[in-house]
Structures are given as C-alpha cells and as structure tokens.
Specification:
This protein has 15 helices and 15 strands. It is of the alpha+beta class. The chain has a single domain, classed as 3-Layer(aba) Sandwich (Peroxisomal Thiolase, Chain A, domain 1), CATH 3.40.47. The protein has an 8-stranded mixed beta sheet, with helices on both faces. Strands 3-2-13 form a 3-stranded mixed beta sheet. A two-stranded antiparallel sheet has the order 9-10. Helix 3 crosses helix 4 and helix 6 packs parallel to helix 7. The model has no long low-confidence stretch (mean pLDDT about 95).
Length: about 450
C-alpha cells in the first residue's frame, strides 16, 4: 500500500519578538524565572502591522511551493486550520489561495478549499483530512496543502498573556513522502468541556487549572485508545514524542503522565521498584481518592529519577526549543514541536531513517489525538532546507510600549494607526479593507 505523509514543511514566524524575562517580566513586576523556568518561555513572536494569519500562512505556503518546485496544478486541496479566523463564512484558505494566485501563472480553481476549527487540534485534523483524501484515491495525483496559522492573543492582564505567539506552519501532504509517513492507527480522547473557548469573542475565556486537567485526561484517553489498535507502547519505542505545546511547562506534566503509563508493567517499572516502589494499582485502594493520592506521590518520585530525567532530556526536551522562542501558535503548536525535534536530530547528526515519532495533539473543548509517524530516508534534506534559525534571528525586538501598540493593532475591536516596525520585502502583506469589509492583500517585491 502506498505510504502517505508529510512531504515537506515550512514555517513563517511573526516578524517581531518580545523578550519575556528582560522586557515583559520587569514591567509586570514578576520574577523572570516565572517565564524561563516555570512556563519554559524566553521570547514570543508577534505579527507586524501588515502581518496576519493570511500573510503568515501564504508566505509559508509560497516558501514551501517554491522550494519544492510546485505550481497550483500540483495542489488538489488547501486546508487551513485556525482559531484566529476573522470571517464566519469565507474561509481563510480562499484568502491564501488568492494571495498565491498573485505570484503564480496558474490558479487554484480546481482545488478543494476549507477551514478547520477545533481549537489547537485542527491542524492535525486537517492532516487527517488530507491523508484520507489521498488514501481514498480522490486526489488525482495531486498533493494537499495544509496550513496551520494563528495569532494567539490574550486580553491584557490575562494570566495567559505571557504565552502569546504568532506564526504559521505549511505542510505538503503527499504519497511517498520525503519527511514522515503517517500511521493508519490513531487514538482519541474527547469530551464536551469548557476549559478554553471564544464565544463570539476574539480573546479566549480560560479556566487555567481546569484546562491543564482536561489536557492531561484527554491525552491519557487518546494514548489508551491508540494502544487499543496499535498495541502497547513503551518509552523506548519512539525517538521523539512531540506534544501540543501551548507552553513547554505544560508538556512536562504530559510527558510524566505518558512515561508512567508506558512503563507500567515493564522492565522500567521493575528497575525503579527498589528506588521508588511499584506503581499503585487501583485494586489496592478502598477509594478512588486514595488511589489518586498514591499516584500523585509516585509521580512526584518518578520525575526525580535518573532514568526518567534521561528519557525526558532525550525524547521530550528537543521538541520544545522552537516553542520556547516563539510562544503558542495554537493550531501550529504540535507541528513546530515535530520540526523542533527533527531539527535537533539533524544538528546532532542522528540517523533517523525508520525511527518513530509519537505525536500528541490537543484542542480545548476538548479532544486529544495520538498517532505515530515514521521518519523517511530523505528527511535530512527536508529539515536542513527549512530556515528556522534565520527567521528567528531576523525578528525585530520590541519594547513593552511597542508591544502594547502591536497588541492594539491586532485587537479587532480597536482601530489605530501605527507605523510598521519592519520593511516588507518579497512577501504578502495586508493592505486594508475592501468594499464589503473583506481584508485585502498584495505581494510586495
């Protein structure tokens, strides 16, 4: 059977950068380590005045198409995942297609275009749609373009303000992929939750403590569901495990939960028994509360063990590097975690062909999804072609006063005139509104 997966990937970060420990924390009167050690964040990307989810998505897509030598005729569908959409009818994919048609001789009239919404998991759901479309034989030899693009803003003063970020990830989904093959097996954990939502509003309403609990519960359910079709997992089965990363500190909790689950009943639990005891079993406790308390105590001990710390440093930590420097990209979050891991592998000279990734996606509201990916022989060429470091290095640093201005620029309820901080060149830019209040774009040479 023909393999299907991610053939190529590109990113586009917002062109402005805010230093969290040195610029944001002092104004907030907070310890810089709250961000660096607590949240695991150092800097956040923000869009310039002329940037938004369309420009970032279109610029990432153009980078990908140009690098792979593609034309619109090669693309059979364009799926955009976002939770930052500004239109309740016209999908962002049509805007992005319109941008791309400004620079290519062909058009996308033949392409199926759509927009996915399920908080941060929508990017992975769009991968699923593209995968199923190709596997069903409906693609007529064409590839799919999946774009996850968001500007993750919170209200000023909200606890989530420090996790903000902006950027886009463009992925080409095709047969015989050059980067990773997606597994047929998937696992889900889903329930009706109100942990994070935007009921007819731009900025989210968040129950932070509840959101963490829901994230962990749905991830556990998704892993168990994945194992029901793929078989038991083991911590050593996967070279990397990229998680949805709203901020790296959240992944620390998910990774510990995953390691405990995967090591249960294995030689790892046996090896650790003399140090921290065996994992509590529910049948050994009279009440659920007693069992949960014992589990929490075990996990507190587990995270201090050398075996867990070594595994975390090897399998999880490399997935967090990009996120720690750009903030939360919502639908693109888990996909920059994958890129971060493979980028680290390339820099370390690791042989990754045939190695497995276990990808854990999550969207509030709430749903988690787990699937595996197999790294392909040509992965290194693809990863080395992505200009992550240069994009991050080229960002323009802003002051706290600048941050306040750019936050107001991208607040849909405010209309202010602010000079751009950078000069656009060779990219799509937002130019204003049309006669029906639609957003308009053009390509700047």
């Amino acid at each position: 059977m023909t393999s299907v997966g991610i053939d190529a990937i590109e990113i586009r970060t917002g062109k402005l950068v805010l230093d969290l420990p040195n610029t944001f924390a002092p104004v907030k009167g907070e310890d810089p380590e709250k961000y660096t050690k607590g949240l695991g964040l150092y800097t956040s990307s923000f869009p310039d005045v002329y940037e938004d989810i369309v420009t970032m998505g279109a610029n990432a897509a153009k980078q990908l198409m140009d690098r792979k030598g593609l034309t619109p005729a090669d693309i059979g569908r364009i799926d955009v995942a976002t939770e930052s959409a500004f239109d309740n009818s016209k999908p962002v994919s049509t805007y992005i297609a319109g941008c791309l048609e400004q620079v290519y001789d062909e058009d996308f009239r033949h392409a199926n275009k759509g927009e996915r919404k399920f908080a941060c998991i929508a990017g992975t759901q769009s991968l699923d749609d593209a995968y199923n479309w190709i596997k069903a034989g409906r693609n007529r030899g064409r590839a799919a373009l999946v774009i996850a693009t968001d500007t993750a803003l919170y209200e000023r003063g909200d606890p989530g303000e420090a996790t903000q970020g902006a950027g886009a990830v463009a992925m080409l989904i095709d047969e015989d992929p050059d980067l990773v093959e997606l597994s047929t097996e998937q696992g889900y954990g889903s329930m009706d939750e109100t942990d994070f939502l935007k009921p007819n509003q731009q900025f989210p309403s968040v129950d932070g403590k509840r959101s963490m609990q829901v994230y962990l519960a749905r991830m556990r359910e998704a892993l168990e569901d994945y194992e029901s079709v793929a078989g038991r997992t083991h911590p050593d089965d996967f070279e990397y495990i990229p998680f949805h990363t709203p901020f790296p500190g959240m992944v620390r909790k998910a990774a510990l939960l995953g390691f405990r689950h995967m090591s249960r009943g294995t030689e790892i639990e046996d090896d650790l028994a003399s140090e921290i005891g065996r994992q509590p079993r529910e049948d050994d406790f009279e009440t659920w509360d007693d069992y949960e308390e014992a589990i929490r105590a075990y996990m507190d001990d587990l995270k201090t063990t050398e075996q867990y710390r070594d595994w975390y440093a090897r399998v999880i930590e490399p997935t967090l590097d990009i996120s720690s420097r750009v903030g939360n990209w919502y639908t693109g979050s888990v996909h920059i975690a994958r890129l971060s891991a493979l980028k680290a592998a390339a820099e370390e000279g690791k042989e990754m062909t045939g190695k497995k990734l276990l990808v854990g996606s999550y969207g509030s509201g709430a749903q988690a999804e787990i699937h595996a990916e197999t790294v392909q022989e040509t992965w290194l060429d693809e990863i080395e072609a992505v200009d992550v470091d240069s994009q991050l290095a080229d960002r323009t640093e802003i002051s706290f006063d600048d941050y306040e201005l750019i936050h107001d620029v991208h607040n849909h309820e405010k209309e202010i005139e602010v000079e751009e901080f950078t000069q656009p060149e060779g990219e799509f830019v937002f130019t204003g509104w049309g006669r029906m209040n639609e957003r308009r774009y053009e390509y700047v040479e």
